[in-house]
Amino acid sequence: MKKYFRIFLLFLILISPLVLSSCNKEGDFFKIEGRFLNLNQGEFYVYSTDGGLDKLDTIRVQDGRFAYQAFIDKPATFIIVFPNFSEQVVFGEPSRTAKIKGDATHLKEMEVSGTKANRLMTSFRQKVAEMSPPQTVQAVEDFVSANLESPVSTYLISRYLVKTSEPDYAKATKLLKQVIAANPNNRMAKKLKNQAESLAAVAVNQRLPKFKAKTIDGTTIDQSFCKGKVGVIVAWASWNYESQNLHRRLNILYSGNESKMAVLGVSLDADKRQVKQILKNDEIEWPVVCDGEMLNSELSSQLGICYLPDNLVIDKQGKIIARGLDYDAISELVMNP
């Protein structure tokens, strides 16, 4: 099994500081301020899982310091992705400021403060730092039971039970039902529950669900794209190196083996024009779907794609036989079905 990386490729570049804002209304800005040791200048990404941002954004660092702000009218969850492929959740509230401090060489030890949710998350992260996976899952269950109305609970279920290399959709659904019962207005928990149920339906040994989508060149494709062949659905994005690298390596495997395999690419990029250019540069000829909605795309939801890299392998009868494989494992299934 491939080594699991969290979402998004990051890179360090020299760049000037920037404070972002998107609205003139005062009092409803959420701010993130921070300082990192051993990181003088650079850039990392930030996105929101529940509508705090409508696009992928960047946070730029100069002299070890950074400041970022976003206009929100309700609590929101932000994810900062760092250069080592790790990510840090930050819980935002209107008119509040979250403060981050840490050492860029020891990101697991960073501290986030400024709101109750961020303090709870920092405490939990420090608590499970040396725990085994089963112990961590139990800690998640204990935390959720004691904090049903906290946004941290929804995030932990997502992080440790759904969007992980060893998911437990049944346990996630059970906990999410408790969260929703305690707070019926928790739209993120409802969305995650639907995701978990969708992922369970697209698990190994299940038939590939019916779908219909427009490819980037305007043609229609559906679940029969691999009829009579081994099918590979590969999710990728230009901003995630590992997924894009797999996409390119599969092109080498595909060349000369078109009679054995069929490939469908699902791009989670926001810019369709950029995707078309990448496909041209890489000489990719199989169908690629990109609706510009990134992880919120309809096809991603139908196929249970909620992190990168991800892929599904389908046998000649349309049954999912594997998921989340590395290149070597995919190649073995294609060459020896």
Overview of this protein structure:
Helix content is 32%, strand content 26%. The protein has 9 helices and 15 strands. The strands form 4 sheets. Strands 13-12-11-14-15 form a 5-stranded mixed beta sheet, with helices on one face. A 4-stranded mixed beta sheet has the order 4-1-7-8. A 4-stranded antiparallel beta sheet has the order 3-2-5-6. It is globular. Mean pLDDT is 86; it is low at 1-27.
Q: Based on helices, strands and strand pairing, what is the structural class?
A: alpha+beta
Shape type: globular
Strand adjacency order, main sheet: 13-12-11-14-15
The helix tally amounts to 9
Largest sheet data: 5 strands, mixed
Poorly predicted runs: 1-27
Rg, Cα atoms, Å: 21 Å
Total beta-strand segments: 15
Strand composition percent: 25-35%
Rounded mean pLDDT is 86
Helical content (DSSP H or I, runs of 4+): 25-40%
- The termini sit apart by 18 Å
Sketch the topology as an H/E string, one letter per element. Answer: EEEEEEEEHHHHHEEEHEHEHEEH
How would you summarize the topology of this molecule?
Elements: E1 29-37, E2 41-48, E3 57-62, E4 65-71, E5 76-81, E6 87-92, E7 97-103, E8 106-113, H1 116-127, H2 133-146, H3 151-162, H4 169-182, H5 187-201, E9 212-214, E10 220-222, E11 230-236, H6 241-254, E12 261-267, H7 272-282, E13 288-289, H8 298-303, E14 310-314, E15 320-323, H9 327-335
Parallel strand pairs: 1-7, 11-12, 12-13
Antiparallel strand pairs: 1-4, 2-3, 2-5, 5-6, 7-8, 9-10, 11-14, 14-15
